[in-house]
TrEMBL record:
It comes from Grantiella picta. Homodimer. The lineage of its organism: Eukaryota, Metazoa, Chordata, Craniata, Vertebrata. Its cofactor is pyridoxal 5'-phosphate. It catalyses: L-alanine + 2-oxoglutarate = pyruvate + L-glutamate. The keyword Transferase applies. Belongs to the class-I pyridoxal-phosphate-dependent aminotransferase family. Alanine aminotransferase subfamily. GO terms for molecular function: L-alanine:2-oxoglutarate aminotransferase activity; pyridoxal phosphate binding. Residues 124-522 form the Aminotransferase class I/classII large domain. Pathway: Amino-acid degradation; L-alanine degradation via transaminase pathway; pyruvate from L-alanine: step 1/1. Keywords: Aminotransferase, Pyridoxal phosphate, Transferase. Its EC number is 2.6.1.2. This is alanine transaminase. It is an enzyme of class 2 (transferase). GO terms for cellular component: cytoplasm.
Amino acid sequence: CGRGPGGCRGGRTDMALRCAASLAAGRQPRGPRREGTVRWSSAAKASAVKINEKASREKILTLESMNPQVKAVEYAVRGPIVLKAGEIEKELRKGIKKPFTEVIKANIGDAHAMGQRPITFLRQVVALCTYPNLLDSPSFPEDAKKRARRILQGCGGNSLGSYTASQGINCIREDVASYIERRDGGVPADPDNIYLTTGASDGISAILKILISGGGKSRTGVMIPIPQYPLYSAAISELDAIQVNYYLDEENCWALNVNELRRALNEAKAYCNPKVLCIINPGNPTGQVQNRKCIEDVIHFAWEEKLFLLADEVYQDNVYSEGCQFHSFKKILYEMGPEYYNNVELASFHSTSKGYMGECGYRGGYMEVINLHPEIKGQLVKLLSVRLCPPVSGQAAMDIVVNPPVPGEESYAQFIKEKESVLNNLAKKAKLTEDMFNKIPGVQCNPLQGAMYAFPRIFIPSKAIEEAKAHKMAPDMFYCMKLLEETGICVVPGSGFGQREGTYHFRMTILPPVEKLMILLEKVKDFHIKFLEKYA
């Protein structure tokens, strides 16, 4: 047919190569589309052998040759116990019998995965931005259309599919600044200090990247609370910085004590250069809400010791206990006077993932950075420009968090009803969880003042500790693995967050619906009692 000197499809040479590739991949060669048996030439067999020899050569990237900082990274929230939970789910789907019918993943704060319904107004605006033809639909309220049009006007080509400025869409940064001013009672906020991010995690990682420098004893030390959210230890490991632990006071409702900060700082000065102080308020995994006096003490300490402050405030809407109130570090810093406000360098973070929204998948967030050196501001924008821009749908979702319906708009009543329903439900579940844990022998749980987790302390008998050592596991990992295998409940051991030597905990989200949460807590109770009996 004239396609080559050897006939159809490139001739015998191509045919031999295709056959060799098929053989190397473990497939039978199909041969040309004609009747008859394929005859393997000696050349084809030789080619297949050579391909197999090449396929088995030593890999360039191995555990020995990979970046050691990446290998050092650990992220307990999605660690070994979650992988085991995934294996058990597969076994259940295959019909393998277990003492339970489902795995309850209480390891992560993923609200929608746990059944929380999305906020209608937020989804309406994002839908309108995603498919602008809906702007002509009478099914959507005018206040949602107004916000969608404004967001789209800030996008190239009026499309959510275009890149934005690396710092984020300008009108959304303006809305974030207005939100911060309202939240903080009129404390000024500059849109130029606002950076839209891929969740709060992206902003935290970016700031740490630009802060970390030096070598040996001058290597940057980063002070983090223990227990902590594993993003911090993971980022510190990846960046080859020095982790400096300060311990929260479990006996005093996980309070932050400045004397403990001073101890940690002074000890760290012997082996690194501590210059970053991270605060999580409300706390994750510990759920404490810091009072005003505590925040003032921390700011004074940072000012005195010349530390760069990172304030992780993603749970600022999640405050449940009476007498507790969220205070932003930015507001307290401003109210402490110009000596502090004009000098303390502060980066604050917020997200669409928590609060009443629970929109984890949109990966929306922002950071506000104040008192940054002008030349460093340019370096930060340069660093952020490497990832081009945060997800634009996430930027739109963040806009609705900071620019929700207001009284007089048609969507306000429904928005407030949905928001209050979510937060009231979380407050109810926080109290329920605390009360039920404290009724279990050998379990002690501090009040869940905020956030969306319990972090109970558990007693583990010495026999169980010895068995855990025999399995080369941390005792609380052993406990949580047994809990998963016997009940289907997936929680994260406290060792993944850090804890004082000799104490054991686990973190569990309070997000499941009340009915499922009560079943979960009863199962934990029954398991714990049997665990104590077995290893007593």
